[in-house]
Specification:
The chain is built from no helices and 16 strands. The protein is mostly beta strands. The strands form 4 sheets. Strands 1-3-8-5-6 form a 5-stranded mixed β-sheet, with no helix packed on it. About 8% of the residues have low confidence.
Length: 222
């Protein structure tokens, strides 16, 4: 549905905070997309994951100047973070490294925007480093259900203020599976996340708000 986007001039507009599914269908295929940030949500994080082969990700300004690139090895998640106070328009390019492509499998691309700064999560970084996920803060209301999950998991937590937060999910190898930016309200919050594209296994969810994090483990079983 996005093809015809093999050049910056023919880039396909995409919505922010929405996962799109597309494909590198041949060795010469280049997928270009365009998007914009708005006042109040100028910081951005571009995540390219669910890769069938080694693909690379590049971010450009509205004039075509290269701003950043992510070239992780193999099928590791590609992530680009740009924190800025200025709303702007951007282009993103996805290509297969050395002509890598898949005739059957797609990739996921998502541009997250937020008022808060994003932290650049590298694929090799463990989400549970220095954290005992079996012993959470007992005073914190932080619940995942149903667990095991099938296609949907709900996160229920209490926020002390109206703010923003980042939800990130990684597998036990440290690969980033999903990242979601949310606005929280004072009191009880409930966030629904799709797990339909997760393979069966154990995952770790991190909720980060105001430089503080809570971590919980859950299982996906379709």
């Amino acid at each position: 549905m996005y093809e015809g986007n093999n050049s910056r001039a023919n880039a396909k507009p995409i919505s922010v905070n929405t996962t799109i599914i597309a494909k590198i269908a041949k060795a010469t295929d280049k997928d270009w997309y365009s998007f914009s940030t708005v006042t109040g949500a100028t910081n951005l994080q571009v995540v390219l994951d669910q890769l069938p082969l080694d693909y690379d990700l590049t971010l450009y300004s509205s004039t075509g100047a290269q701003l950043a690139t992510s070239q992780s090895a193999g099928t590791a998640t590609e992530t680009i973070v740009r924190n800025t106070t200025t709303p702007a328009s951007y282009y993103v390019k996805v290509i297969g490294f050395s002509g890598a492509f898949s005739s059957t499998s797609c990739y996921n691309l998502r541009v997250n925007t937020s008022a808060s700064n994003f932290r650049n999560i590298q694929p090799s970084e463990s989400a549970v480093e220095n954290i005992n996920i079996e012993k959470l803060n007992s005073s914190a209301h932080f619940v995942l259900f149903p667990n095991p999950a099938q296609d949907i998991i709900n996160l229920n937590f209490i926020s002390e203020v109206n703010s923003s937060a980042i939800i990130s999910v990684v597998d036990l190898m440290g690969k980033v599976i999903d990242v979601k930016s949310i606005n929280t309200v004072e009191g009880i919050n409930n966030v629904e996340m799709s797990t339909s594209h997760f393979v069966n296994g154990i995952y770790i969810l991190r909720l980060t708000q105001n430089d503080e994090s809570l971590v919980q483990k859950f299982v996906v079983k379709h």
